[in-house]
Amino acid sequence: MAQPKLEADLYTVGWVAPLPFERAAATAMLDETHDEPLGFERPHTDANSYTWGRIGDHNVVITSGPAGKYGTTPAAAMASSMLSSFPQIRVGLLVGIGAGISRPEEGYDIRLGDIAVSQPHGHSGGVIQYDLFKAKLGNQREDRAFLNSPPEVLLHALSKLQAEHDLNEPKFPKYLEEARTRHPRLAKRGYAHQGFENDRLFKTTNPNEEVQREQRDSTEPEIHYGIIASGNTLFKDAAYRDEILENIGNDCICLEMEAAGLMNHFPCIVVRGISDYGDSQKNDQWQHYAAITAAAYAKELLGYVPSRDLQKTRKAIEILENISRDVSDIRSGVECLNQDNQLDKIRKWLSPPDTSTNLHKAQKSCHKGTGSWFLQGTLFKEWMSGACPYLWLHGIPGCGKTVLSSTIITHLNRQCNSSHVVLDFFFDFTDTNKQLLHKLVSSLVVQLYSKCENSRKELDKLHSSCHDGGRQPTDESLFATFQRMLGYVGRVQIVIDALDECAERTDLLLWMKNLASVGPANLHLLVTSRREEDIESGLRRWLPDSNFVSIQQDAVNNDIREYIWGRLENDDGFERWRSNVDDQGFKRRRLNPSVFDEIVDGLMEKVNGMFRWAACQLDVLQKCLDLQMLREALKSLPKTLYETYARILAGIDEQYQKRAIKILQFLAYSKRPLTIQEAVDVVAVNPSRKPPFDPDTRMPEPRDILKLCPSLVCLVERQTKGKIILPELQLAHFSVQQYLKSEKIETTFPEKSIEIGMLFQQGMNECNASVSITRICLAYLSCPDDQVSKEEIETRFSLARYSAMYWMDHAKSAESDEDTQERILNFFLQQKQAYTVWRKLCDLDPHWNEESERNINLTIPLYHASLNGLQHTVEQLLQVKGINVNAQQFNHGTALYAASQKGHKHIVQLLLQHGADVNVHYWDDYIALPAASDSGHMAIVQLLLQHSADVNAQHTGYGTALQAASYSGHMEIVQLLLQHSADVNAGVNADFNPEIRKYGTALQAASYSGHMEIVQLLLQHGADVNPQDMIHGSPLKAASCSGHIGIVQLLLEKGAN
Predict the structure, then answer these.
(1) Is residue 3 part of a domain?
(2) What pairs with residue 524 in β-bridges?
(3) CATH code for position 235
(4) How far apart are the C-alpha atoms of 682 and 803, rounded to whole Å?
(5) Angle, vertex CA 843, rays to CA 841 and CA 846, nearest 5
(6) Contact, 316 vs 83, CB < 8 A?
(7) Spatial CA neighbour of 110 closest among 275, 245, 230
(8) Which among 224, 372, 694, 981 is least surrounded, fewest beta carbons within 10 Å?
(9) Which are the contacts of 813, defined by CB distance < 8 A and separation ≥ 6?
(10) In whole angstroms, what is the distance from residue 860 CA to residue 853 CA?
């Protein structure tokens, strides 16, 4: 029998059923099905598929979403497209499944298969967008994320239906049976009640404890009216669900993922069948039944909508046109807030260094055509295609490797998209944070997380396993997560610059080898460095010589020539050669090709592929005032970079020399880059003066600091987390640092300047530089008023924070100087003002006051001297009368704990010789043996055991020493502890806060971290393969969550379950 064909304008009810089985349930409710409307032509923007039919007096059009698409955005797109194709639609129904918020003790006894219906309450239209709440939680805002109410005609129908249900039996159960009769396959495919035994509700506080509820005497669904919360998060966690509910209110009955996308785009009512409880027990068993109960209820609701009233209702598309723009903007903002909020959490957790400053600095040196010889070459094309996915570019110091890296990155970024991701990292000698392997991987992980949405779940999983960022991931787990994230990208290209500036080159080379061996086929890796023996031999173990690219002099010289021409044409210092005076006395701008050719030819004759050399010579040539000076300079050009640097130092004015040495000492040996304000104060400090620092002696123009040592230092603008642009002073190139730290300064100076060379050689000696920096820092700390706030000190004294945070790092190398030893002891024991400022700036003890200082005046000095390895200072403090070697520095432990944790063996020996108690601890914290075991300090573990350390003592965070060593992968320490009868099955004290414990048993710890040999050793020593730990899970679960397949297989073989 032919189905009816109606005109598209006759359809007045839109039914959105986002999922396929929800659409099947909706279609089963039709009293009559229709063919495609007469002459139906959908707009090209409408990608929906439709089913047409009739329910009662109403012609209904049904649509569902693209397969696999969830959330508010696809729902909004479906509704918007439907209204463009069927402009006479007056009302809508959003019908499908949702998560029930069952709270029997509060009167909300919601069961699986029940029906939730959105109903306005107070100021709410019946649906709340929980994404907006989540985004605003941190801002503590009061506005509520309410969405539009359903149309009046539906609300009147809802009221009638509720009144009817109070008097008579509902009709929707009958509609269920009729649908199953017309479509017998429905019952076979799960559209029937799934049995009370399969409906279990568990407590949030204990996911293994079931909530006891009264047994119902009928399988007929019950109906619940209230607030439905909608958003883009798939709820599988009861704690997260309850966090949302705390902010929404107790009248919420259901959570789902589409309504917020429709309520402001599509005037509708929301009907949801309950298929789960939004917790970890979520499964698909009840979905089909829940969908058909909701559809049956929606059909009954339509029966209470008079067709004549519907015709009087405003068209849905007219409502949409008035509000869609504003709501779209709001929703886009919410989605951005959500994404930014989680990304900010990840960034705060991993703290990756910002290498964009390196990229931008290098890009400034790029000129048209820079690197084209490489980008257009065969090897790069093979690298791009994947035929040669790994390349090492190497070259001499100063040949422009970083500039070439930036050119490659810029080229790649122009081609990237959602399935093609470019990641980069610049190792940097000026910043210790950019010299570590862990920071490299952290940076790559965060970049990938921000660029590839599909990969995020892997890092989110790691973040969750680390107590939602409460502790840092192990290197192994972070590296494994990165490898898994790479599998979600169509193609990923990684550029890593300056391997030679990494402080952990052995580990870096091993990581690269492992990444290449187990990484996905879509991985392309390009690295640059100098050609140094350890790097070359490390790469040669897994890369053929054909993957090594030497940056040839001839190729680079073309880039250098362009660079020189660019500076001649643009630098202010060469303006005199670009302008001539005409007969009327006016300056006319024109190039003087003969002079420029002379400069270019003179430099290119000796440049030998060194960008850095050319840059320094141009800095010198800018100062030539006439042609004779210029030609003399070109004739006497230095041959090497070191000779160039020697000439620059020799050319510094005598009155600037001492200031220049101070700046170069700090920049060569500082623990982080200096801001320009910090550098200005370094110059202004004089430790021999009283007072040592006067703000009035600062340089009036901070940028004049560049004139103290031109060409050797530069300013780099860095953006802070608060989006403030901060100028930082840095050494201009890695080769500058290497030269200043070398023993070649004096030998490279011209004979006539040998005394100046000796001055700089002596000043740049590491011990002398450390002495100078330590004195400057200690003197500077004596200047601020100790009565003012920390914030005011940092505002008025730019160098105060650096001095407070890093003076002891420099003092460690300066301790051999007797005068410095005396200054340090005097600082601790005599200079109360400076000592107080230091404690305040470092937040050493929030409970400290002058009263407590009288009682523990030596505890903090001894602790921090021990922590930072100041052996001579510890020796002197231990001689002071009244010293308590076992005193605890508030919130930080004893001196022995600090020295053990940091690996200062000689200080540990000193403390033990002076009566340090090897087993002293406070509140189960700060125990020396677990700390040393976690950090891998074998010699100290041996010392502590020799002094009768309790091998099974438990630390709140580390657990026992065996657990700590197992977690961190220190095999020799694990063996030693087992030899000393460590309890292989020791768990964590049940009274400890689970949020700060790192792991359960030693076997769980090793399994989670992926240390196969330690797992095997522990099993050989009788480790329980199935320990019970509600927080950390079994060893099998720990290994599975971290992706350690080999350990999983081993544990299964040993009977794990």
Answers:
(1) no
(2) 493
(3) 3.40.50.1580
(4) 10
(5) 135
(6) yes
(7) 275
(8) 981
(9) 766, 767, 770
(10) 10
**What residue type is assigned to position 71 of the chain?**
G
Decide if 129 contacts 230 (C-beta within 8 A). Answer: yes
* Whether residues 287 and 370 fall in one domain: no
Cα–Cα distances (Å) from 739 to 432, 434, 736, in that order, read 18, 20, 5
pLDDT band at residue 277 using 50, 70 and 90 as cut-offs = confident
Q: Residue 772: pLDDT above 90?
A: yes
Same domain, 871 and 944: no
Q: Any idea which residue has 């949702």 for tokens?
A: 98
Give the whole-angstrom CA distance, residue 1010 versus residue 50.
Answer: 51
Between CA 115 and CA 254 the distance in angstroms is 9
pLDDT of residue 1032: 55
Within a domain: residue 750?
no
Query: Using CA atoms, how far apart are residues 358 and 367, in angstroms rounded to an integer?
Result: 17
Res 1045 pLDDT > 50: yes
Asked if 324 and 403 sit in the same domain, the reply is: no
Average pLDDT of the segment spanning 620-643: 92
Burial-class residue 431 by CB neighbours within 10 Å (0-12, 13-18, 19+): buried
In the predicted model, what is the mean pLDDT of the chain? 85
Q: What's the pLDDT band for 929 if we cut at 50, 70, 90?
A: very high
Q: What percent of the chain has pLDDT over 70?
A: 86
590 neighbors 622 (Cβ within 8 angstroms) = no
- Give the integer Cα–Cα distance in Å for 184 and 390: 59
Tokens of 152: 């009046």
Answer whether residue 947 shows pLDDT above 90. yes
* End-to-end Cα, the chain, rounded Å: 59
> Model confidence over 907-928: pLDDT tens digits?
999 999 999 999 987 654 678 9
Q: Above 60 in pLDDT, residue 457?
A: yes
| Domain match, 1026 and 965 both | yes
In 3-state terms, what secondary structure has residue 70?
Answer: coil
* Within a domain: 826: no
Question: Are 913 and 1051 members of one domain?
Answer: no
Is residue 1057 very low, low, confident or very high in pLDDT (cuts 50, 70, 90)?
confident
Residue 252 lies in a domain: yes
Range of the domain at 536: 351-551
- Tell me the mean pLDDT in the region 552-579: 85
CA distances from 554 to 390, 559, 603, 696, 705 (A): 24, 9, 14, 52, 36
Q: What number of H helices and E strands is found in the chain?
A: 48, 20
Distance of CA 751 to the CA centre of its chain: 53
**Domain check: are 383 and 527 in the same one?**
yes
The length of the chain in residues reads: 1057
- Structural domains counted in the chain: 5
Residues 126, 85 share a domain: yes
